[in-house]
Amino acid sequence: MGSYAWQEPEHRVVYAALREVRRRDPRTWREQLPAQATRMGFPDVDWRTYFVPAEKPKPAGDAELNEMLRVLKALVAARS
Length: 80
Hints:
Structural class: mainly alpha
Number of strands: 0
Oligomer: single chain
Shape: elongated
Largest sheet: none
Mean pLDDT: 85
Number of helices: 3
């Protein structure tokens, strides 16, 4: 980490905080990373940059559903 050329100094802080938290659960990251960065002396990290809300998938339309059903039926028929 010492010789790596970070694009932004903040990226080093985020990486170091991730290594300290060591949990893989995204909910834990949302809670623990800001606290860890603050303990490391970096309270001003804008975590919204790193925790973008996930977009809800749009519901499939009739044409998409019909295509999915066709593919599933073809897969079932191929296994028979």
